[in-house]
Amino acid sequence: MRYSKLFGKARHDAPADANSKNAELLTQAGFVEKQSAGVYNFLPLGLRVLKKVNQIIREEMDSIDGQEILMPTLHLRKIWKDTGRDDSMEDVLYRTTGTGDQEYVLGPSHEEVVTPLVKKYTKSYKDLPVAVYQIQTKFRDEPRAKSGLLRGREFGMKDLYSFHLTEEDLEAYYERAKDAYLRVYERCGLKAYVIEASGGAFTDKFSHEFSVETPAGEDTIIICEKCETAQNLEVASGKVVDPDQAKEKEEALEEVDTDRGFSIADMAKAWDIPAWKILKTVVYQVEGGGLLGVCIRGDLSVNAHKLEKYVGKALRAASPDTLKKAGLAQGFISPIGSPEGLSFVGDHSIKNVKNFATGANAPKKDYLNANIGRDFQIDDFVDLAEVKGAFKCSTCDKALKEMTAVEAGNIFKLGTKFSQDAGFAVTDNEGKKIPVIMGCYGIGNTRLVGTIVEASHDENGIVWPKSVAPYGVHLITLGKDPAVAERADELYEKLMEEGVEVLYDDRNDSAGVKFKDADLIGVPLRMVLSERTLKEDSVEWKERAEKDPKNVKIGNVVKEVLKFFSL
User: Fold this and answer.
1) Which of 48, 282, 346, 417 is deepest in the core (most CB within 10 A)?
2) What does pTM read for this prediction?
3) How far apart are CA 505 and CA 476, in angstroms?
4) What is the pLDDT of residues 9-52, one digit of tens each?
5) Contact in structure between 250 and 355 (CB atoms under 8 Å)
6) 3-state secondary structure 12-81
7) Which is the CATH superfamily of the domain at 26-69+108-237+403-454?
8) Are 399 and 388 in contact (CB under 8 A)?
């Protein structure tokens, strides 16, 4: 492609509203153009990258027996009402009304469509397992569409659905899909971590996410670099580092007056103790009525997701008015002397601590030397702590690392939720009617483009991996000597004949402009022809990821390029 003819050239002004590197660089380099928040045009350069990402995905889905189909984005709203997700996903659903007041949904996902579709073509258990996938546009009315391609309102998605007779068969396919996903990311030049995560709106079981480290990510993941295990902060667990209290004895409980403030830091300062020696009690309002007290070490925080999963109902921190009505003094709450009927659960972190400082359920009063079992009781001990700070790996005892990451894909064991809603059951080989078991597997292909840029750029622009770069070679001419242009034209044609994708900058611009644009666009290999190189019968050869160029004889260029790309 001659750059002079390219639609959507690089521009030297960064978009004013760009809040991520992928939004900034992809727009500036001429890959995408934002129409509105979370909605992007893909220009020729961007579409070339997206097609290559899609091809990698297709090859890996085909390798695990996925069959490509294409489903509509316009769904009857009725099928979403039938599964209950018209309500559970109402905040992000785009709804519209057509002829005859027929109600529709713009598809944010396709479980409601694919399940009855596969049901129609599944006559018996002998037709299972089956796996179908599509690469299709999705729509979600995200309240905060930001970070360029990482969070869109209209976006591309590869979604694969598998259908099985047994849990064992689903489990085996699930592991095949997990391996295929890791190959996708590796082929796209990414290091992805497999993360245990919440099932969200799709399943009440755990799922797995594939996360890539980047400052632009919206997720926090906890990893053990030794064991190579990783978890989303929502569900992460670890081994809390217990304080050394081997020689400390239980002291007598003491009620004391205090003028301290309400915070843990205020309490630690008042009694000259570390935060871990404070018993922090947080009271929650449970959906449907009732209060629940949660006790945890003062240096740790309650993980709301874990707590809600344990209780099985929605929760919110009790308001000051609610606490007052319940006879609890804000900032001085404790399981000691608490109102009758208030139950307490404790995080495992408090089990091995002696002589806690805690509130005394009255303003300006604390207890010192409070001990579990002797001074107060806990109804149940649960893993409720947010894994930050004083935690190590449960397997190897290595300190856990916190990392900001972007979710680049996810897989779910759906079980029978959608098949039961659709009445999708088959008769097994024993004549028993059983609901079909499902799995679903998603990769945001447009998000993946943005993720690659977030993970692979420098101060000058994008650094594309060879596998997904819009072109392999960025050929540049310098000067106005006709002989330079003639030789460059010859080289361009030879490379194209060998199947090498070449972006040929034939503009009459300065070296500075051309080099700046080349770095911004990020093609893996830059080759420069000039009067100087022509005199040496060579080209200047520079790999995008390398600092310094070298000279290669023109007669050897094609061979070296083919070797570089392993063609």
Assistant:
1) 346
2) 0.86
3) 5
4) 998 788 888 889 999 999 999 999 999 999 999 999 999 999 99
5) yes
6) CCCCCCCCCHHHHHHHHCCCEEEEECCEEEECHHHHHHHHHHHHHHHHHHHHCCCEECCCCCEEEHHHHH
7) Bira Bifunctional Protein; Domain 2 (3.30.930.10)
8) no
